[in-house]
Amino acid sequence: MNNFIFQNATKVYFGKGCVKEYLSCLTKSANKILLAYGGGSIKRNGIYNEVIGILKETNKTIIEFSGIMANPTYAKVQEGAKLAKENNVDMILAIGGGSVMDCSKAVSLSARYEGDIWDDFWARPGIIDFEPLPLGVIVTVAGTGSECNGGAVITNEVKKIKTGRDYPKLNPCFALMDPTYTYSVPAKQMISGSFDILSHIMETYFSEPNEDNVSDDIMEALMRSVIRNLRSAIHNPKDYTARSNLMWDSTMAENRIIKMGKKCDFECHNMEHQLGAYTDCNHGCGLAVLHPVYYRHIYNAGLPKFVRFAEKVWDIAREGRNDEELALAGIDALADFIREIGLPTTLKELGATREQLKEIADSCGISMGSYKQMTPQEILDIFEECYE
Predict the structure, then answer these.
(1) Are residues 141 and 232 in the same domain?
(2) Structural domains in the chain (count)
(3) For residue 342, what is the DSSP state?
(4) 380: part of which helix (H) or strand (E)?
(5) Can you tell me the distance from the alpha carbon of 36 to that of 48, in angstroms, rounded to the nearest whole number?
(6) How many other CB atoms are found less than 10 A from the CB of residue 376?
(7) How far is CA 111 from CA 55, 115, 116, in A?
(8) In whole angstroms, how far apart are CA 91 and each of 10, 29, 292?
(9) Do 216 and 158 share a domain, yes or no?
């Protein structure tokens, strides 16, 4: 194992009924709460009424911050920060998935900062030497793992840049995770969110070190869990075992534990973020299109790990194959799984045009942790191979 420092400040309350059991005590010190959520699905499925009822029982003043979109924008962050400042709120309570949580983290920072957080914390890494507004989250979608880290991906619509930063000070104070809250998530969103979980694990797994390490062992188990439980959840969306496992898989993929001692790649995320900045495509769908093609470009640079992926994750027997053939069989198994679960396989399906591809490729960040560092030209090659 390589050297590392581990920290995670988020306290997790997991299981059926956890919101009803714990929310009132977790918000005890707050009088004014900024309630952040997305497009209104929580009003249709009853979660909103349950949360509002608990908060009103303890006489909280509630300021609503709704309409957070799938790829939260910097303008939306500024809107939330303005509400928080004008109403002098004590806490943000975010109800939703990764987009709501990411936006709320940025709001918690902006509400306590007088400068431009995009310039000072997203355009480049910054130092948070003050306390952001306290944030608690109620998770309703499994996918990003945002509930247990300080990461937030924000899109600057003016600059056409989608950037993620991870600041430990932006970790939520608490995360309430009731797997039954995910039952009403539409099938496409559940599937794309679950692929995002798998992507987070693969982006960490396919990086140095290649020597035996605990992180890789954990990741192989997590990848098998995501594949197995996603299939079960597609068959029966109210399979509590499957939905609870996916929910915890999501957290484990992004609570920093598996990243310990790993360089991490995340080049697919770099590429997808810019695709999203230009097309506003679904994040998990974009990743599904890119991963197999990207891996066919880099597998020779990390051949032993791709062989291990085929054998340990997909249970592919060697049967006379050499290492290269076995590695490619593992990538083919991933591509077959993407088709099996019904995710898109081309950029054209995501709304991208050929004319955009070079501009998007030139705007992508380059990962220093990849087995093979990309160039803008090779990213363009990948985009063109993915197009149709």
Answers:
(1) no
(2) 2
(3) T
(4) helix 376-386
(5) 11
(6) 14
(7) 22, 10, 11
(8) 15, 9, 42
(9) no
